Amino acid sequence: MFRRVLGKTFGFVGYTIQYGCIAHCAFEYIGELVVCSGPSMEPTIVNEDIVFSERMSRHLCKIQKGDIVIAKSPFDPNMNICKRVIGLEGDKVCTSSPSDLFKTHTYVPKGHVWLEGDNLRNSTDSRNYGPIPYALIRGRVCLKLWPPHSFGTLSESPTERIIKTQSDSDSD
Amino acid sequence: MAQQATAGRCCLRAFVSGFFVAVPVTVTFLDRFAYVARVEGSSMQPFLNPEGGSKCDVVLLNRWSVRNYQVQRGDIVSVVSPRNPKQKIIKRVIGLEGDFIRTLGYKNRYVRVPDGHFWIEGDHHGHSLDSNSFGPVSVGLLHGRASHIIWPPNRWQRITPSLPANRGPLDTEEEED
């Protein structure tokens, strides 16, 4: 009697560990659901939207310019930020705002990315804190799941902040 | 014939079920608990790799203790390199957020470590790519804390946090009030 209970307990614990590990691998290497909050990515993603962010691109280093990514905040590793990639390492990015008279540019250092929110007026991003290391990126947002009326893939950048280089037009 | 087919199928089923248990458990263990890594290079001499060359130390990286990004000054940690996301570097934590650091060869003489960042240095100054080259490192890049040296056997030891002489942050006692 006691041995049966012990056997069942061990079996239960074993199954929990196994399914827990499979869940960890799924969230870490396949993708996760993210609830977004804040106005910095309007109109593409608004407050309380639920999106699916896939992890494979990040592990295979295939994040591209124009992708929306979820990244760890450089100032608080327990918080996540959702922004669009404007420049990868070596790219030229514009650091002045559209209202400035003289435009200033900078080049993204090696191993870093330049992120900006789609809602330029209400977004704290690389224009404030500089480029962030690539390894802080957690995943690429590929699908919006909620609300149902805007279900589907996400649109291109509404701001014209991405500077296209010669190599981009060649690869198209 | 039929017996061979069923034996083959049994083997395949056993293999597949074993695979689906072993791989996720191993991957989860390496991601969440502990990781073993070989230290290459001379940036942490004389503490790690004192002989250099072909004799590299192997350390045990504790990933569970950094799950909440808690580190102490003097810990040896492995961090994803800000210059190359595919590479991990092993350095010592010299300062945490809010500390003032007197730098060695950085663009500013004195630096206040921003929130959510820390300052890492290799023990072998001048031969180390660390915060003196690329500035404070974001805590989100923390990978693990080196807790033990496990190879070669004559160098088995537990690694305790200790700051090198003259490399601590400035004025820490006053700031803790």
What does this structure look like?
The complex is a heterodimer of chains A (172) and B (177). With 172 residues, chain A is an alpha+beta fold. Chain A has a single domain (31-171), classed as Umud Fragment, subunit A (Ribbon), CATH 2.10.109.10. Chain A contains four helices and nine strands. The longest helix of chain A has 28 residues, at 2-29. Chain A is elongated and about 85 Å long. With 177 residues, chain B is of the alpha+beta class. In chain B, the strands form two sheets. In chain B, strands 1, 2, 3, 4, 7, 8, 9 and 10 form an eight-stranded antiparallel β-sheet that branches. Chain B has a two-stranded antiparallel sheet with strand order 5-6. In chain B, strand 5 (100-102) and strand 6 (110-112) form a beta hairpin. The longest helix of chain B has 31 residues, at 2-32. Chain B is elongated and about 80 Å long. The N and C termini of chain B lie far apart (81 Å). The model of chain B is unreliable at 173-177 (pLDDT under 50). The chains are: A alpha+beta (172), B alpha+beta (177).
